[in-house]
Amino acid sequence: MKINIFGSTGIIGTKSLEVIEKNFPNFKINLLCAKSNFKLLNKQIIKYKPKYVFFADINKYKKLNLNVGNTKFLNFEELQSYLLSSKSEYSILAVSGYKSLYYLESIIKNTENLGIASKEAIVSAGHIFKKNNYFKKTNIFPLDSEHFSLFESLNNKKNKNINKIIITASGGPFYKRDFNSLKNIKFSQAIKHPKWKMGYKNSIDSATLVNKCLELIEAHYLFEIPFNKIDILIHPQAIVHSLIEYKNFITQLNSFKNDMKIPILNFLLNSKSKFINIDQNLFINDYSQLDFHKVKKNIFPIYNFFKNIDKTNPQNLIKFNIGNEYAVNLYKNNVIKYTDIYRIIRKVTSLNLYSSLNTIKDIIDYHEEIESKLHNFNF
To answer: pTM to 2 decimals?
Structure first.
């Protein structure tokens, strides 16, 4: 059984390879795609012997070990051609940022089962998923912990019986601190997530709560839930990932330990593999303390701003996402303060730029148009 992994050197990619190695001997690592981590990719090539490899960073390409077994190295055009002319049983899309859109349509045409962890792809293009029949062309399986928990609960259930859906947020490292007191917080402090091990982008998004804003958009598109029926609660223990409140007054709590191996394992279990060897410490054994708090405006002002923007217009959601991605990179490079992330998101979301956004190309062009204007901004 063939599997392609887009973003193989990231957190999701490396965990996926670990789960496959330990539990799925019938899987063949067919294709690995990575952005710039040539050292880890070289190790993965030697260990997993993929048939194909794509490496995005042209400047570091010569640092790859190009003479390992029968592995064939593809450029971007060759990658697209290969995907469109072949079929694979499984793919995992875990490329960070909107550039995951460059792969999306080709992957959907190529694969039978798609595990998707690239929230920006859904945030930017979710409005055309149904129109383009993506849900019928491949089995889309969300790998984000919150959406995985909802997917398992909502599968084959009618959404008309649902009164409300709650997505939980750990609150990140600053959930007890007033936002205005965080001006001089260092990047190294902001990425220290108390529960999850994630890349810097997701860690910063967790600290600001932008990640939950994006996850609300994902839930809206993936499960066709109106925005007025989705909300957030702060849950520091990060054990309960979502709650579903039904119209019969019963609320269902969906929980599993905060380990991304669990969604990945469940996605791959669709292969009907009979050999499963999962560590016992992946299971919940302590419900002694479960705290839930409403989101406070003075701690997470970004969420209050998000709630009030017009979310029926996909352009606003895309601008919100782009503004955040741009601001996080400025903060990472020490150009702005932590609290400036919120200010930049507001400014970018207010840009008056129109696009039809009817195709993936339209969406990518819209991203690039906004990015070109941001270089002239005075932040």
So the answer is: 0.90
Indicate the SS3 state at residue 240: strand
Model confidence over 322-348: pLDDT tens digits?
Answer: 999 999 999 999 999 999 999 999 999
Tally of helices (H runs) and strands (E runs) in the chain: 15, 11
Two structure tokens written together for 374: 């941001």
Q: Are 274 and 254 in contact (CB under 8 A)?
A: no
Count of domains for the chain:
3
Q: In whole angstroms, what is the distance from residue 263 CA to residue 279 CA? A: 14
| Location of structure tokens 């419900």 | 287
Which residues touch 127 (CB under 8 Å, ≥6 apart)? 221, 314, 357
Residue 227 belongs to domain spanning: 144-258+285-308
User: Any idea how long the chain is?
Assistant: 379
DSSP conformation letters of 329-342: HHHHTTSS-TTHHH
In a domain, 62, yes or no: yes
Tell me: do 163 and 298 sit in the same domain. yes
Closest CA to 126 of 218, 206, 258: 218
Buried b (16+ CB within 10 A) or exposed e, 130-158: eebebeeebebbbbbbbbbbbbebbeeee
- Helix, strand, coil tally for the chain in percent (to 5): 50, 15, 35
